[in-house]
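User: Hi! I'm working on a homework problem where we have to compare a predicted structure to a textbook description. Could you give me the structure for the chain below?
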Amino acid sequence: MAHIDPTQEERDRALLQRFGYKQELQRTLGFLSNFAVAFSYISVSTGTFALFSLGILAGGPAFFWTWPIVAIGQFLVALNFAELASHFPIAGSIYQWSKRLSGYNLGWFTGWIYFFAGILTITSVAFTIPIPLQAIFPGLPATIMGLKAPVFIAVLAIIIGTVINVAGVRLLSIINNIGVAAEIVGMIGFALVLLFFFHQQGIGFLFSGPSPKDPVLQTPANPWTPGFDTSYAGAFLAALFMSLFVIYGFDTAGTLGEETKNPQKNAPRGILWSLGLSSIAGFLFLGGTILAIKDLPKIEAIAGGANPNVPPTGALPTIIQDALGQFWGDIYLWVVFLAVCVCMFAIQSATIRLMFSMGRDGRLPFGKAWGIVHPSLHTPLWASIAVAVLSLLPFLYSDAIAVLVTGATGLIYLSYFMNNIASLLARLRNWPHEKAPFSLGRWGLPINILALLYGGLMIINFLWFGGLRSNTNPALSGAFPALASVPLLGNIPIFEFSLLVLFVVGAIYWFGFKRRAVIAEDENPAQVLAD
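Assistant: Happy to help. Predicted structure tokens:
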């Protein structure tokens, strides 16, 4: 009898079965669609429009150099993730990777932290959607149906994104591909136009700090990062936050592994290409917009909230409209609006897959309900609804975008750090034992160590960053005013507050109710180095 080679679809299905799962999600994504979702998650336009005001106010034009610093550091992380995605192309990305490399405890806490980081990121990006709209339509009402206009728009966007994700990955990929094309043309094309035809400053402008008239530099103590007095170093570390918020989410290419054809090759490529192209786009875009600034004190005044007619987040739209004129400026802002919407849809998709993956394993409250795939839609329906509801809850905590962004980004970097610890521990036990299509070879260990050093330094920066302490814990003062007067609790920033709540609640749930049952049910309690 002649030997018949299995098709790629059969090989993909067999690979998933090897990890203990049957194919339920639709495997329809090729490399370009896989890359597109990860690129949309990163979304240079989303992060820059959300936090450009922080960067320019804290660091001045020289905050441009935070971009290559973060891009290089994250590329080290991405290389490590690409190898993991090649070995474990399973929905849930770093949760699955940590679980299979380090066992129960670290794996579960990595997924737990990363899940709520995704929830906060959805909220943060949804709250970015109104920024270009407010610039295009300055006459938008302050409130809509009893909610602040930005909150109403954000809530509506989350609902629409949920419907798109429930409808299926094919629709999501079509919308993502359109959004990616628009963002690439917008970020790179318009950036080159700004650089060559509308620049107002020379290259030396990129090495200058905030305007001497900037009130930030005239305060008796550095308001950004405690311990640096009035030095520029503290302000530059604070300005890092814009770049830190933008450049993550590339692991989404791995979390869509169960829906990607030939994922052991295409998922690693999606991770690296999404990060690489985003880094180039951001470098050009930030350079183009900063050099297009006509009046730095004016932009700083907007960023600092001194202009009552323009919200602080309007600093970047103002630069673009001043440079390109109202008509072309608005055209570009519509491109940004589309890119931000697609970014939020992609983040919802990744967070839904993570909840589905943890739910399928029975690792979350309410059992395996979150791991159920709708038989006709082929999407995790209940996980999609739960992610939507949870991503609306942070609005009870705060409607200040910088506060939400700080919490989301800090939790993301912590979960990345925890996953890199898991992979380092595995490498010290001679993992990987088998060859995968993408391999770091002997470079795996040093790259892993460098990624940990970079991630650790960024987490330290999150912990001592003081720029948001003066207006933090708005959740307690707004939704829970009785708790705002509790010593320490009323002043704790959102990152530390989130860590405290998640680790306390997580430890009670995991060690008190779940861990013993999971070990009893598992056929392979070691659960380490499953490849």
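For your comparison, note the following. The chain has one domain: 31-470. The first strand starts at residue 143 and ends at 144. Good luck with the assignment!
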